[in-house]
Amino acid sequence: MANPDIGKPRRPMEGDTVFRTITGFEGNNGRASSGIWESTAGKFRSDTTGYIEFGYILEGECRVVDPDGTVHHLKVGDPFVMPEGYKGHWEVDDFVKKVWFVTLTS
Fold first, then answer.
1. Kind of pairing, strands 32-45 and 12-14?
2. Digit-coded pLDDT (tens) for 43-82
3. Is 103 exposed, middle or buried (0-12, 13-18, 19+ CB in 10 A)?
4. Threshold 0.70, pTM exceeds
5. Closest Cα partner for 14 from 41, 39, 47, 38?
6. Which residue numbers delimit the (S)-ureidoglycine aminohydrolase cupin domain (predicted)?
7. What domains sit in the chain, N to C, each tagged with a CATH number?
8. DSSP assignment of 37-60
9. Which pairing describes strands 19-27 and 51-65: parallel, antiparallel, or unpaired?
């Protein structure tokens, strides 16, 4: 397994969030990738400009809030898709871990 990348949100809103990302697959000349992502508590913006993401919650729970205020509660076993150009935000109260698959659209 690859070493994890440790980082912070590019668009933080609240908290001192830390991300841990492991990329386990890259293919299609770098246009597709998949891995595991973890986040500690915090609130941060999402922007999927240029890609589509499929995710599946492995541990913990969170909320993804659409720009119009619609709240999606995600817990263990929940799949989700973030369409290209999604600009909502994440709210993590404690911890969340997901498996992700991303494909570039441009």
1. antiparallel
2. 999 999 999 999 999 999 999 999 999 999 999 999 999 9
3. middle
4. yes
5. 41
6. 28-99
7. 5-104 (2.60.120.10)
8. EEEEEEEEE---TTEEEEEEEEEE
9. unpaired
Give 56-78 as a 3 state SS string. Answer: EEEEEEEEEECCCCCEEEEECCC
The answer to whether 20 and 38 are in contact (CB under 8 A) is yes
CA–CA separation, 75 vs 61, rounded Å? 4
- Other beta carbons within 10 angstroms of residue 74's beta carbon come to 20
For the record, the structure tokens of 100 come out as 């992700």
**Distance between CA 92 and CA 74 in Å, rounded?**
10
Tokens encoding 8: 């912070």
